[in-house]
Amino acid sequence: MAKIISPKVISVGDLVIIDDFVFVMGGIRIVIASFVHIASFTSITGGSELIMEDFTGLASGIRVLTGTDDSSGGSLKNPTAPYPYRLPIRSFVRIKKHGIVGVETVIVIRIGLTEKSIYTVRFGIISKETKNGS
Questions:
Q1: Are 40 and 22 in contact, with CB atoms under 8 Å apart?
Q2: Domain spanning 3-126: which superfamily?
Q3: DSSP codes of every residue in the chain
Q4: Distance CA 128, CA 11 (A)
Q5: So where are the chain's domains?
Q6: Which of 51, 55, 75, 101 sits at a 20 to 30 Å CA gap from 62?
Q7: Residue 80 CB contacts under 8 Å (≥ 6 apart), including other chains
Q8: Can you give the pLDDT of all 134 residues of the chain as single tens digits?
Q9: CA–CA separation, 50 and 56 (whole Å)
């Protein structure tokens, strides 16, 4: 069974499959359009925004990070620390139509995966915008 936190900020389209052992933390907003597959052992965390357009998919073991703690040294990096001592960085991840992300990939904040993009690098990190069809 998938675990979904803050379902009120999550919208799900038609014909969406979310496999068992998926973890989704709602954050500010999550939009999962139609004909989307999120495979087992995938997590979506960070507290900000994820948009998955029609016909997109996340293979097994994907990590989607829509936010993180500031690692520059000027704050604490622990979710139990009070906010005056933490500086969370929140942004977005957007996967456009027909975008597919392969097994064990990490997607970090401020990322837009363009239409018809397929990423199949095992244990890869996507950390910048992509071009159509790459």
A1: yes
A2: Hexapeptide repeat proteins (2.160.10.10)
A3: --EEE-GGGEEE-SS-EE-TT-EEE--SEEEE-SS-EE-TT-EEESSSEEEE-TT-EE-TT-EEESEEE--SSSSB--TTS-GGGB-EEE-EEEE-TT-EE-TT-EE-SSEEEPTT-EE--TT-EE-S---TT-
A4: 26
A5: 3-126
A6: 75
A7: none
A8: 999 999 999 999 999 999 999 999 999 999 999 999 999 999 999 999 999 999 999 999 999 989 888 777 888 888 888 888 888 888 888 999 998 888 888 888 766 666 666 665 555 666 666 655 55
A9: 12
Residue type, position 91, single letter: S
Q: Which two tokens stand for residue 36?
A: 């989307």
Residue carrying the six token digits 């604490």: 76
